[in-house]
Give the backbone structure.
Amino acid sequence: MDPISTLTRRGMAKFARDDVEGSVADFDQVIALDGRRAPYMWQRGLSLYYLDDFDAGAAQFRRDVAVNPNDTEEAIWAFLCEVRSFEGAKKNMLTVGPDPRGYMREAYALFAGDGSEERMREIAKRSAADEFYAKLYLGLYKESRGDAEGARVDIAAAANSAYGRGSGDYMAALADVHLKRRGWVE
């Protein structure tokens, strides 16, 4: 395997083990080896978010959307990095193209002020992946609005869902890291 792939995978594995600092070091090495990869390192943006380096995280996500304009998740994560005030972040929310994933379209609408928690709960009933993502993004939305307890409940539900426990999805690892970083699990 080439060094870029090895470092990327190693950084992702470190993140999943809650070695967020180590993951950033690996992702930074990827960029040092090949600067053209810098805009595509969304994993680095997630790690920066959990290190509370919100300005660098927002910049990472904004670079990603510049090269991948249909990436709804990165637009939401840029929002989360920039949310000093919910209304202020909403005004600066990145515009993205259509996302084929229904849960991401609704999550984007929720953060943009056009969606509803009820629609997210309805989407969660469709499939195991829909349940996981709807609950994860509903929890992140609640946290951005200052509802820490609501966020804890929804993100824990996402992490403990069948998809969260069995998919091997990087975002399932993120739900676990989120709970640990907030002190919501031991």
